[in-house]
Structure formats: structure tokens, C-alpha cells
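Your task:
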Amino acid sequence: MNSPQLTDWLPTTRKEMQLRGWEQADIILFSADAYVDHPSFGAAVIGRILEAEGLRVAIVPQPDWHGDFRDFKKLGRPRLWFGIAPGCMDSMVNKYTANRRLRSEDAYSPDGRHDLRPEYPTIVYSQILRQLYPDTPIVLGGIEASLRRLTHYDYWKETLRPSILLESKADMIVYGMGERPVTELSRQLVHCLDNAHETLDYDNEGNAYITRKTFRQVVQQEHCIPQTVSIYEGDKIPQGIGNDDIVLHTHQQCLENPKMQAENFRHIEEESNKYEACRIIQQTGSQYVVVNPPYPPMSSSEVDHSFDLPYTRLPHPKYKGKRIPAYDMIKFSVNLHRGCFGGCAFCTISAHQGKFISSRSKESILREVKAVTQMPDFKGYLSDLGGPSANMYALKGKRIELCKRCKRPSCIHPQICPNLNTDHRPLLDIYHAVDALPGIKKSFIGSGVRYDLLLHHSDNEEVNQAASQYTRELITRHVSGRLKVAPEHTSDRVLNLMRKPSFTLFEEFKRIFERINREEGLQQQIIPYFISSHPGCTAEDMAELAVKTKNLNLQLEQVQDFTPTPMTVSTEAWATGFHPYTLDPVFSAHTPNDKLAQRMFFFWYKPEQQQAIRQELRRMKRPDLEAKLFGTKTFANTSSKPVNNKHKSTRTRRK
């Protein structure tokens, strides 16, 4: 591989613009992450997509938001618009633990520094740019804005907040992955500049905006199924809002009545995951937030285009000699697809990427793998050949016309949809082709695996055989000693609230894992992820979890306390006390003491925890569980080592 030149990256300074012969950029992106020119980093992807449109794109990574705002001035005003890319992770999840403690490092900053990113960079950056350039359009993107496009609960401020558009003073949100909306937006703005009498049409798929108009100019989406949660009556309905739009309860009503916020969220989630969605409108004060339907799922050729752009796959030279932890994790990984149809209640992936799977072509994947093998420090081992869920590649509905009518947030809960094709053969073909390439010694699967898909019995025996073959090859060829899976809990009642399969499936998969390891003479561990304090979970549920995991010879380490993040069913239930789909009351552990009373059961085997656990079990009047946990003086762990179960909200890390 030839050494890249400075001009191979998108420019980050005035000098780098001049090296390209630019006096002005068309678009300037402000990123809260370090600039890594890699398809796993959102700002780089959007920058390269727009560059491929013939536009001049510059990036200002991690600008200093203090003092005279020189970093916001140094590239001047763009010809078209400013973009805010707050980072691959939600800034608050990135910065704080579930207990609101500062994390030890920021994985997306050089040397892990956590002083290079403000809280809520979307708001901070946008307000500064609006102050400096009041007439230049500001477009918000990335997961932080995407998940805050309507009234949402903020765990760190402990309050309901309005759409981030209002606080940021920006013009528009491009939600979701963003390639097609920003491309369309830029084409329209160029057209408007070339034709002074033209005005920008805000009503495009994949965006959200604010208006004070009475909606005379808002085009109704005639293809939508009429369904309205309107709180207006008679002539109070703003002109232009029809039965084809979903009008949510107002922000003020949600502040006054939490059940209305829960009711709103069901419609927000359903429309986010529909193939053909309706427009959503919510009033906040005298303004209206309009969320247009998302773009349909990207085709393979469109996804290929995004991944095939001329990334250097390296951090910008300004970081020479510095470590960027997140880049170290993914530098030798390859993403196969986007989207996740799991619909886990606590997860934000489908809210941002959608539930429909958009898979890359085999040719595009192999091109990227070949590029990885040419990297100077590559030793032959791919760290991950995966995606949001490792084994959803190329899975989709058998009859797309049924998918277009569906509004289920999950294709596999409460049971696997009979219309879902669960054939793992295309993914096996990818694995075989990658492993056959020169320079590849082994490809690991670092992404989480959905074992419920592997254990599913379809009416097609060839599909069942492929799932069995995939399971064996996964365990024997693609595990680096530890396989990550996510049962999350042992209580079927709690798992149902999580939209996760019964714990009996994990037990069955664990037996298969151990059997295959014995047959192949392997000594590998299965790494199960668990969550405490999820809505609906009680301390007694956690005590039973401790007993069940003990019986499976598992000692759990560094597990995750539930963190409420915007735009998930679990967060809405935790914040409002009501389940968004049933409006039934849901218990949640809110206080630090209640959370600790649940979390400690993960560590029943630690002597320093046992007295408190015994006291809690006696308070519950559960001597049976106390006897099962502490009936013997020592714990004989028949597996090789305690499970190091680190679970740091990885579900929000990808772009």
C-alpha cells in the first residue's frame, strides 16, 4: 500500500483547503469525534458521500468550544450548509456510566482524552454556529440528533426535553444513516443557488424540521394509512394537517401527563420501522416539529457505494503518535450490513439504522477485506466480520409486499415471523470467500450473535441445515476464545419486556456450544451479557438470575446496569412508568439503593457482597434462594475462567 498524502483526507484546516486549490468549501462538517477516514466513522462517510457528488467538503474535528470560537471561524462560511456530526456514540453515553460517573476515557478521542468533547455537542456546536453565521443553514445528523428529533426523556437531566431542533437553533435534522437525505438536500440547495426564484422543499424523506406555518404548504402523504393521535378539536387543527398524518400529543401535554409521552412513543417507534411510514407532527409552544417518513431501505448497490468510497482507513495525520481507542478496535474489521430486526426494547440501532437489513454485495466486502490485508500492520487476522447483529446478513422478508404492510418493531419477537427468510447460506458463502483470500489467516466474529435465529426450525430443511452448519463453523473457525451472546436476563417476564427470547434458548445454545467444543477439542468461553434494573425487573428477579447463572457455572463480571437512552421502549417505560404499547404501569428501579440492590446479585460469589445479599434475600422471605446460593462454602467453577462480561453500551457505537 502506498503511503497516503495529506490531500487524501478531507481537509481540516485552511492550509489543507489551499493544497486542494479551494477558497471556500461547499459544506463544512463539525465532528465531536476525532477524524478517522474509515467507513465506521459517520463524519467520514457523509463527507465522502458528498465528495462523490462533486462537492467540496471539509471537516473540523473536535473544535474548541471555549473562548473566541476560532475553530468555528477558521474555515469561514460554506457555500451550502454546516453539518453537525456529534459522534458515533451518543455523547452522554460516551461520557458517563449508568451511575452518571465520568468514564475513564473517551474511545473516540486521541489518547482517550475526555475533555475534547462537550456534553450535547449537537446543541453546543449549533448554537455557536448560529451566533457566528445567522443566515447559513445548519443541518444536524448522527445518533445524538436522530434519537432526539421529538420530545424525549433525558436521563442525565432527569426531565423530558423538546426536539433538539429547538434547543440547538438548527434548521433541520437528517435522521438515520443519512447518505441519501444529505445528498438530496445538497442537490436542492445547489439548484436553489442556481435559480434564485426557487425555494428549498423541506418535505423530503429522512428529515425533520420546525415550522411556525399553519401547514398550508405541507404536502399530505396520500399513501399513508390514516391514523391520528390528534389532541386538536374542530377548527383548532392547523390547516394542512390531514388524517394521513400522525399528530402527537404536544410537548406541554407530555410534561403534564407522562402517559401521553408513553402513548406518543408507540407511534414514533412504529413509523420509524415501517417500510412505508406516515409523517409525524408535534406541537411545542407555537412551533411544530415535522418528521417526514424515513427513506426506504438502501439497496445493495447503494450500500456498496457508501463503503467503496476512497477512504484512507486511517486517522488524520494530525494524530500521529496518538492512540484512538475506537479505531484500534475496528481497524481490522469489516461491516457486512446495516439495520437490525431484533427490536430489543433497550436498543437504539433500529431507531437509527432501521429494522430492514441492507446488505453489501459479496464483491464489495471482498474489496474491503483485500484493502485491509494491504495495511502495513495487518497480521492476517480480521477482528470482526459482522454488523449490528453478526448473523442477519441478507436476511429479509420472503414476500416484500407483506413487509410493506407490517409495523411490528421486531421480526423475531414475540416469535420469528413466518415471512422472514432465515437462510444463513449467503453469510457462510461470505465467510468462505473471505477466508480463502491470500493474507487471511483467520476471520473472527466480534459482533453479537442472535442464537434464536440459529435455533429456529423453519419449514425448509436446507435452511435448518445451513443454521446448524453456521453454528458449527462459527464456534470452530471464528471465535477468538470467547463468543459474545446476549441473553440479558433469565426471567421470561423481564425478557418479554426486553423483547428477548426465553432463557431456555440460551441454555440450549450453551449446551450446543459446549458439545461442539468437546467434539473439536477446544477450550473456549461463551460470554453472556446481562442487564440489571431494566423496567419490570425486581431484586427478586435478580436473585433468581444469580441462582440460574450459578447453576450454569457462570461468574459474571462488569455487567451493565440499564442506562435510559432516548428513543427506546425501555427508556419510555422507565421515565413515564407506563409501557408504551399497553399503557400498563411498569415498575422500575430508580434510586441508587434500588439499583444497587439489583446489581449486587451479579456478584453473589464475592465475599464482600454476600452479607448484603443474605440480608436482601431474608427481607424478601426467600430462604430457598439463599440456600441455593450459599448452601456450600465454596463455589467450584467448572469452566476455565470467570466470564469477563464487559457491557459498555456497544449497541450505540456504530454510525
Q: What stands out?
A: The chain has 25 helices and 20 strands. The chain has four domains: 6-210, 212-296, 325-445, 481-655. Confidence is low (pLDDT under 50) at residues 214-238, 633-655. The radius of gyration is 25 Å.
